[in-house]
Structure formats: structure tokens, C-alpha cells
Amino acid sequence: MRETPMSLPRQIEYETMLLCRHRDLAVDGGRLERSAYVLLSRLRAEGAMSIGQLSEAFGVARSTIHRQITAAHCAGLVDRIPDPDGGLARKFRVSPEGERRLLEERERILRGLERVLADWPPEDAAAFAGYLKRFNGSVEDISGQRWPRP
């Protein structure tokens, strides 16, 4: 069978699929479900948010966020609080247990990435980080859904 060269979008699609797969393998499997990790990361970056705000921020249906936030709440990862601004909608914030587990998971991920990048020249790792940031920024520009950055 003769291999045909992949288009650049196809190569990027394939490599980003593998990147998502390898992320979990590089860190010896995640202890915190990926959707919970992303949800907690967003709440930690922006503070308390309602289901509507989370739905808008993630660009997904309220029912999807409701399922995720319910699972996180049942696991003790988020607290349900009254709107600090006096609104009617309840908001959710990262609980102390959620904070602990989020930071634990982030440290596990960072250790795995350090192992992966151990033999990379620093300038290659910096270029890779820059390209990822640029790529994600372009996606965010198109979607209109910016992700807060530290």
C-alpha cells in the first residue's frame, strides 16, 4: 500500500488527537477526570460562576454543564453558593477538596511533562509552548470563547 502525504490540517488533527491521548499516559493516568480538571481550572481562574456562565464559557449546552457540575458537586469538588452579586442564580466555586485535588493533578501533569521534555533543548520546549499558545489563541479567536491565562 502506497502512503500518500497527509495535508497539514490532517497532520495537526492526528497529532492533537495523540497529544490528548499521550497527556494521560505521560502522567501515569489522571486521578481526576479530564472534564472535572477543566471545569475546576476554569472556576479557579475566574471565580464563582453559574451554570449559564459556564455553559457560555465552554460553548456547550446547559445540560452538559449541569451533568458535569452535579458530578463535581457530588464528589465534593465544588460548592454551590448564592450569587455574591445578589443575583438569583446560584453559583459554583472550587471547594477546598476540589482545590487540593486540582493542584495535586496539576503537579502530576507537570511532573509527567518534565519527564517528556527532559532531553529537549530549552529553545525547542519554549518554541513548542509558544506554538501551542498561538494555536489555542487562534481557536479562541474563531470561537469567540477566550480562556483566561495566568
Give short descriptive properties of this protein.
single chain; 150 residues; mainly alpha; 6 helices; 5% strand; globular
How would you describe this structure to a colleague?
With 150 residues, this protein is mainly α. It is 64% helix and 5% strand. The chain is built from 6 helices and 2 strands. The chain has helices at residues 8-26, 34-46, 51-58, 62-74, 96-116, 122-143, and strands at residues 78-81, 91-94. It has a two-stranded antiparallel ribbon with strand order 1-2. Helix 2 packs across helix 5 (96-116). The longest helix is centred in the last third of the chain and has 22 residues, at 122-143. The protein is globular and about 55 Å long. The model has no long low-confidence stretch (mean pLDDT 89).
- Compute the CA-based radius of gyration: 18 Å
Structural class: mainly alpha
* Helix percentage: 55-70%
Provide the spatial order of strands within the biggest beta sheet: 1-2
Summarize the structure.
Helix content is 64%, strand content 5%. By secondary structure, it is mainly alpha-helical.
